[in-house]
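Customer escalation, tier 2.

The customer says the design service returned an amino acid string that "doesn't look like it belongs to this structure." They asked us to rerun it and document both sides in this ticket. The original structure tokens are below, unchanged.
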């Protein structure tokens, strides 16, 4: 990155360098941080608006706290680019999200300043509480801070953490970054509460002085603290005419304050740094702060792709004569089906634009539900509606659906309810890396009774599967599909029912049978097209559960060699299912299973990762041609 004569950021390699600067220099540091982030992300896309919004919080935390000895636990890594720039990775920031480059989200594997994995929301309070309790038990004077957004605060794990914070001895500081956003506009009761929360500034100033006076005289020792805190909460409630939910849980509350006033933030953090007991600092910020286009349309600028810094114009590829994204086919198809079937409702945990449920939401707002970052609730909420006659299409990113595994089993599958679970971003998703790859859904769901599990090879199949799933009494129906574009330019096709558990033969042959599931089947088609002097049969299984036993019986009779291909983990997926079935029915072919290995896959482009894990076209050709 080019430096200017006035650059202060260029003098900072690590936070220890930052702490040598006078407070008056910190606004300039925040300005330069934003400039670095905007300039780099304009050519190397990533998560923009979130990191811009927390520049002051980031600088203030590293200025006041002795990181990495003190712990900062970020909730979701969308907001951590400034943190990376201040912690020894500025020169490498141009490799962010690229193969073998800086990881897309903070990870202790990359830096000692990254205290915990934070690809999924709502885990910061629980993780930070564990660290704070560990500090207590080991006699360490380490400080621990959790930084969580108002959107992530809607997650159930955040509430579980808060409940435990109030009852476990700890000195944790929770910073609530309140910008009225997650990825889309934040929703729900907690969000409304935060918008209405009123804390008197005069009262806060008085409380600061009082706490210092009490602390100096020993009245804030552990055995007296609870009584003082209850008195404090009672006085606060009387002055503000409302009960503060955090103080009601015996967590000392400070705020709300302006999260962009860096000097004030430094003052506040310095004052509360050594206060004993759990504390919550409520800060108002603006997502996209410092870059006008991002401030104006934060949803669009969450991850905008490439753009022109000067004009704010997003540089989008020409999509003329190109297939749409799978998510858009889902959104358009769901709206078509909902017009025909009044029982259909749509549900998503905080991703209406990410999964394209917003298409139905615009026309049918009363039949679409954004439940906030709460995947388990989304599934059980859908189950409740299904129990009383509605037909929910619950759309969750595959990796995030892992958080709802128990809900799928206990609240949907046991009762055999008519819930359609649409798993977007299934398979390898690319630059977001291991926390976001939809690698485990097929293997994780296959053992669960009552589930139908399907994956469309293309957009036509997606539409047909969605149509099939909404027909009467299909029970729990899982449809998983990938991130990005499909293959069908002319993607609108007539609706027709697909017999549940029936695959299809796409190409006949006599030498080798290739069994694939999902869009990876398109790479199988390309591989077979390049082979000569080899008769390869190709079967699109469509369904992992129930398996097409008639198709498998034909394959078992005819072929001595089978290759299975899937964009999911090998262990427990399609290949395992085929081997089990063949063994149970007395067939003993050679079965080569192509899929993801027993390790977490790094970040990179989808094509790069497919090559690394061995499910690209060349790897498929090699497996077909290999000798036993």
């Amino acid at each position: 990155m080019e430096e200017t004569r006035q650059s202060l950021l260029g003098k900072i390699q690590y936070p220890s360098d930052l702490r040598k600067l006078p407070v008056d220099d910190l606004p300039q540091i925040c300005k330069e941080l934003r400039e670095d982030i905007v300039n780099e992300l304009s050519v190397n896309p990533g998560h923009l608006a979130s990191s811009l919004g927390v520049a002051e919080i980031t600088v203030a935390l590293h200025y006041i706290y002795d990181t990495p000895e003190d712990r900062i636990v970020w909730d979701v890594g969308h907001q951590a680019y400034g943190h990376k720039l201040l912690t020894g990775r500025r020169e490498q920031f141009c490799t962010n999200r690229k193969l073998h480059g800086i990881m897309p989200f903070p990870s202790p594997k990359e830096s000692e300043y990254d205290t915990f994995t934070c690809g999924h929301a709502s885990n910061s309070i629980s993780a930070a509480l564990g660290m704070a309790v560990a500090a207590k038990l080991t006699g360490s004077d380490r400080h621990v801070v959790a930084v969580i957004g108002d959107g992530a605060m809607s997650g159930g794990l955040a509430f579980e953490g808060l409940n435990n914070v109030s009852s476990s001895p700890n000195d944790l500081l929770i910073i609530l970054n309140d910008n009225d956003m997650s990825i889309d506009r934040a929703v729900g009761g907690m969000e409304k509460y935060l918008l209405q929360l009123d804390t008197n500034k005069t009262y806060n100033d008085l409380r600061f002085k009082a706490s210092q006076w009490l602390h100096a005289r020993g009245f804030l020792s552990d055995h007296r603290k609870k009584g003082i805190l209850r008195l404090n909460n009672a006085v606060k409630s009387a002055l503000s005419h409302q009960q503060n939910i955090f103080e009601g849980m015996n967590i000392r509350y400070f705020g709300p304050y302006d999260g962009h006033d860096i000097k004030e933030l430094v003052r506040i953090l310095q004052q509360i740094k050594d206060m004993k007991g759990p504390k919550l600092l409520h800060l108002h910020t603006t997502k996209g702060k410092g870059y006008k286009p991002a401030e104006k349309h934060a949803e669009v600028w969450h991850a905008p792709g490439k753009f022109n810094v000067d004009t704010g114009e997003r540089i989008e590829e020409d999509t003329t004569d190109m297939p749409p994204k799978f998510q858009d086919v889902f959104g358009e198809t769901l709206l078509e089906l909902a017009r025909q079937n009044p029982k259909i409702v749509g549900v998503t945990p905080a991703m209406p634009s990410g999964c394209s449920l917003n298409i139905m939401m615009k026309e049918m707002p009363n039949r679409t539900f954004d439940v906030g970052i709460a995947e388990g609730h989304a599934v059980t909420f859908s189950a409740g509606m299904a129990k009383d006659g509605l037909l929910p299409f619950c759309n969750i990113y595959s990796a995030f659906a892992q958080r709802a595994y128990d809900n799928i089993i206990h609240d949907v599958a046991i009762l055999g309810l008519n819930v359609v679970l649409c798993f977007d971003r299934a398979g390898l998703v690319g630059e977001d890396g291991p926390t976001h790859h939809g690698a485990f859904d097929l293997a994780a769901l296959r053992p669960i009774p009552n589930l139908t599990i399907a994956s469309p090879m293309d957009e036509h199949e997606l539409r047909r599967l969605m149509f099939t799933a909404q027909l009467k009494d299909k029970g729990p129906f899982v449809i998983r599909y990938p991130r990005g574009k499909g293959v069908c330019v002319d993607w609108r096709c007539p609706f027709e029912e697909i017999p549940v558990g029936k695959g299809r033969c796409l190409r006949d042959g006599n030498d080798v049978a290739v069994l694939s599931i999902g869009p990876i089947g398109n790479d199988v088609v390309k591989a077979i097209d390049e082979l000569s002097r080899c008769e390869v049969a190709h079967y699109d299984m469509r369904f992992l559960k129930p398996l097409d036993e008639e198709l498998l019986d034909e394959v078992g009779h005819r072929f001595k060699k089978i290759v299975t291909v899937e964009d999911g983990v090998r262990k427990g997926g399609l290949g395992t299912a085929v081997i089990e079935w063949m063994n149970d029915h007395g067939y003993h072919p050679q079965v080569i299973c192509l899929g993801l290995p027993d390790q977490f896959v790094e970040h990179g482009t989808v094509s790069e990762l497919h090559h690394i894990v061995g499910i690209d076209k060349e790897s498929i050709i090699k497996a077909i041609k290999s000798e036993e």
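Tier 2 assessment: The sequence is consistent with the input. Residues 197-201, 225-231 have pLDDT under 50 and may be disordered. The longest helix spans residues 222-240. Sent an explanation to the customer and offered a walkthrough call.
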